[in-house]
Design goal:
Elements: E1 2-7, E2 13-19, E3 22-28, E4 33-39, H1 47-53, H2 56-79
Antiparallel strand pairs: 1-2, 2-3, 3-4
Length: 92
């Protein structure tokens, strides 16, 4: 798999990978990532096709999903009780 290129976005890093007959589009924020795998043929054959696929509305949907992922993470963390391992070790 090799990096085919990047798609500019102000709120996330978007990396396009190519391997055999597939493009992978990876969206990243500081804590989360989403990857979409696209087979070549039909509508997706070149990097320009991938850039067209990643429209502004699609990127907005990805950001909405990142927000949902973050809310899930916060909710789950609030449900957990801290483990005793988080305390400092006793030094003799």
């Amino acid at each position: 798999m090799r990096i085919e290129g990047y798609i500019e976005h102000p709120n996330m890093k978007i990396t396009v990978f190519k391997m055999d007959n597939r493009y992978s589009v990876k969206f990243e924020t500081s804590l989360y990532e989403q990857t979409f795998k696209l087979r070549t043929g039909g509508f997706i054959n070149h990097m320009e096709d991938v850039k067209q696929y990643v429209s502004a509305s699609f990127a907005d949907d990805v950001l909405t999903h990142f927000n949902h992922m973050h809310q899930m993470n916060l909710r789950r963390q609030s449900e957990m009780t801290p483990s005793e391992d988080d305390e400092f070790e006793t030094i003799i």
